[in-house]
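Hello K.,

You asked for the raw outputs rather than the summary table, so here they are, unedited. I folded two proteins back to back in the same session to keep the settings identical. This is the first:
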Amino acid sequence: MYPDYYQFTTDDPTRRDYEDGMFWFYDGLHYPEPVYPFDLITDEGWYLALSQYNTRIFSLPPVYGVDHRIINGYVYISPVSVKNLEEVQERAKHFMERAGYYYDNWSELQPQWVAKMENLIARLEAVKVPKLPALEDISIVKSAIGESTGYRLLQAYDEIIDLCIRSWQYHFEFLNLGYAAYVTFLDFCQKLFPTIPMQSVSQMVSGLDSIMYRPDEELKKLARKAIDLEVHSSLRASIDFDTVKSDLEKSSNGRKWLEELETARHPWFNITTGNGLRHQDRSWNDNLNVPLAGIVTYVNKLLQGESIERPHEAIRAERDRVTEEYRSLIETDTDRETFDRLLDTAKMVFPYVEDHQFYVENWFHSVFWNKIRDVAAVLQEHGMIYVGEDIWYLKRGEVKDAIWDLVTAWATGTRPRGCFTLPKEIEWRKSVRNKFLEWSPPAAVGKAPEVIQEPFTIMLWGVTSESLSDWSKIQGTEDLDSITEIKGFAGSPGIVEGRVRVCRNVEEVNELQDGEILVAPTTSPSWAPVFTKIKACVTDVGGVMCHAAIVCREYGMPAVVGTGLGTKILKNGMHIKVNGSTGEISIVR
């Protein structure tokens, strides 16, 4: 089901010794379930891209890339450290020159990146997946094209795959530089102020605008417009968008509102209900019931006289206060200049840490998964697979082989061999994946290193020596119901008490009530409307730069992230105390 290079080694002692000596942690942030064979393309994409930028392009001093393996369908990853001090120093020279070029020219390079991504998406949207005709149109002859539809089907699939891999090349062009700038600033602050909380450092780069907030702002705008046009009652009448649309089309104001909706949809509804790395993470455009629920949430709050705005000014004022408080304690001009320079760099690059998600994980992948569904429709039409969604049980290379099988049989007037072999193989793989779902993956396997230095691992996943120790304590507890205290990362400051609502997907998010505490494996940008309803957020995975932590800081509410097993320990209805300033959670009752 998965490529050989994702498997742990049994027959080569050298490679086996390497694997046994590494520390592998479960990437539940990206893959909360056993990965489908085809969906592994997104993991392969960042496996290559992150590692190449760390190792071969920017030469990150303390680490090479991040290695990947699969255990029972679950993705495990391991940062590869640079152990030789002389090599670290040599790599640092290259990093200063290469990363320095990007930092020095960020304001020119970053808009170029946006243009590259928009061009990539336009190319993907333009790809046509042709159906195979019984007889080619006469225009093929009279235009002397010299190519068949079978060839163009092969070409279309190759282009879709190539564009996907390329999107991940672009994804990491800037990303680790963003994390590296933050880690450098964090390290400097911790040397100046040994007791400074990591969260205080993150507060110093809060209050910055990101394009990832734009989809949510569009929902707010549509909510206000619905009230202005007095069509909000129609929106609140049903949770089914088609029903709402049918009602709105009956009035002039309803049609005006629908026009506003259509304007907002492209591109802002290319936002996924998950993280975009899996085919089941459908976009708002695929399921308009999801943004409708968000719009209605905002309509209800506006009608009740409540604010739906993020507290920009308060967050920025607190950011400036915390910054000045620590800056005033710096004793030398040299340290103060270094502090200012590193903070300015971190604030300059920080928006990209969130912005890139809209272009790659959301917009690009919303289009990508549907293009693959177009390919699946052709395979289904010719009996290669029973239903279109079966395509996800095939590896991307197997899909290419299936297309070759199909077009050569189509060309010759015979039946593809895959019609007899693929459906049986897919049914077997379905049963295997169902078995994988019954397994509970451990948070980590192997020997934990003394220090973890890879910035992506620390900032996004929240994997540090301390968090690993906290997770291992929980894993060693036989009765999870006996646990009354949980430790995670202090993602966003503040202390609140409230009732738990565990949400593992967008459907469960709709059950959230005002004033509850959201507990989730991780959060998705498409869940943004719920942040105006909840008191706090708790996640299983994530560090100070994960989506949940960033959004909670922008909304001024507490967050504890990277708890390891929060969704398994905390249950709906529990009353808990969340301390986002210390990363501690207490079960009150």
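The second followed immediately with the same parameters:
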Amino acid sequence: MSILETISGPRDLDALSKQQLVQLAAEIREFLISNVSKTGGHLGPNLGVVESTIAIHRVFDSPRDAIVFDTGHQSYVHKLLTGRQDFSMLRQRGGLAGYPQRSESVHDIVESSHASSSLSWADGISRAFSMTGQDDRHVVAMVGDGALTGGMTWEALNNITDDNTRKLIIVVNDNGRSYAPTIGGMARFLNTVRTRRSYRNLYLTSRKAFDRLGTPGRSLYRGMRGGLHGFLSRFWNNEALYSNLDIKYIGPVQGHDIDAMEEALRQAKNYGAPVIVHMITQKGHGYKPAVRDAADQFHAVGQIDPETGESIESSNKQSWTSVFADEIVKLAERNPRLVGITAAMLRPTGLHKFAERFPDRVHDVGIAEQHAATSAAGLAFGGLHPVVAIYATFINRAFDQVLMDVALHKAGVTFVLDRAGVTGPDGPSHHGIWDLAILQVVPNIRLAAPRDGTRFREELGEAVAVDDAPTVLRFPKGSVAPDIEAQRRTADGVDVLREAPHKDVLLVTVGPMADLGLKVAERLAAQGIGATVVDPRWVVPVPRSILTFAAEHRIVVTIEDGIRVGGIGTRVRQDLREAGIDTAVDELGLPDAFLDHATREQILEDAGLTPQKIARDLVAQVLGSKVPVARPLPPEAANGQDVDQRSAGEKRL
């Protein structure tokens, strides 16, 4: 039996010898490589925190001591040490989540996988412990150096250092990377700490001095190195950063040395006040294919060959991200005013090709979506057209800036939202299902949802041509489906994908839901029900021709992969009522709930977004109930004029 198999909880670590701990670390790495290569997941980050996570659980008593992971993508080792060793269905329905999850274990506290929030959590938890007389409980927050580029981290530090009586330990996992190499002044400073000759010389000189004293000297060195090097390195390397924060600093510590980490953590634990433990680690440590990967050191992988690290997923399909990556370069070559902005995700969002072609025109602002949006407003004021590429789930963090800095100032900024809609295995905090509901309340904003690659290229070109308002282009995770050609396009840009000879149902599809709408229409046609399928392309503001179509049909059904509450269906309903059109509207989308990890297909089926379910319900409504025939829209309204269609009695009211 391996040592790992004997670990059912953190306290099983207490009796292990130094040699056994080293063996355990090796077994954990082997386990992670073997298992994650089969399921996909965050491999590189977890390989980099094996020893440090073991040390944290040896020194602190989880769950009595609260352990918080920033983003949580480095929590696989934590899961293993807290008794969760079945990784066979990692990130699949019924299996372990890819991030901490309270329903899995009392050892998991923070489920959100949005970066830079851990120190705020730690601040609040430690304050609660202090205020409720639980002064013997510690809080440990592991935060990557990339998260230090986020503003929340520094807001939290400002408050943490305001009260030096709490038992709060901040472990900075400094590997020089977030998804990619960490950028900015903080990154340059930490890189100086890691590489400065004075620190390296100090380390070697002090070690040699104690070695001359023989075994007693080496023992004394091991007992003192955390504090000695913490004190000296703070003096030599970190005084400029931490002296004004009024917070104890220990480090840098070799994060792959369990002894060194334990010593530093025990010193921090005994200090009785907030402490920063600065550890140096290597992302993907112990796995050569990950270390050699210059792009992201296997931050997240699909199914791979564990021996070589090569992908074994066969797909000849182009991803949505790659379509954007190619098209933005073409647009930038024609338009020198285009600039790109990313929030620490240059390659994942597809801006890397833009950066390679025009390195001076792409800016990585770190994990700082709020700053990205407002900086973009400033770039627009200066005569440029910024394209801000981020994941849809992260636009939530920059809403105020989109509203007050971009839209209020009529700034021409394009937001490109990758991973919109249901993303699948990464779980609740990574689904991009809120953007349509949140952003459509921004005055004058224009939202586009392409159904295929051709429409994506069209709409991206249209978006960057708008210089007096924010524009948004959203697309899902995964491969681009085959193009769906329209039968015709209206004057205001709505694509008619299928037009029925008799007009019973109007299906208004948002983006990639067009294919679903066409399949529903086929099933309705088999039941003698005429269904027209349209793709607005630009879903906000609602094109006038959508109102024209709605007035000609008996019922309108909107289909979107965002939440129903406040979604595009709600907007269509409101615009119809404002125009005096009383056609019934059925809004189909996702529930206002946090959706667990599962495949996209499983989640859409749960929400009833399948051809069979939608068609069956519509057959019952159209044939089994009395859906009224809508009144035709007056010619002047069809031509885009506002018309009051209320009855005389309604007008008097």
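Residues 197-207, 218-237, 629-633, 635-653 have pLDDT under 50 and may be disordered.

Happy to rerun anything if the numbers look odd on your end.

Regards,
P.
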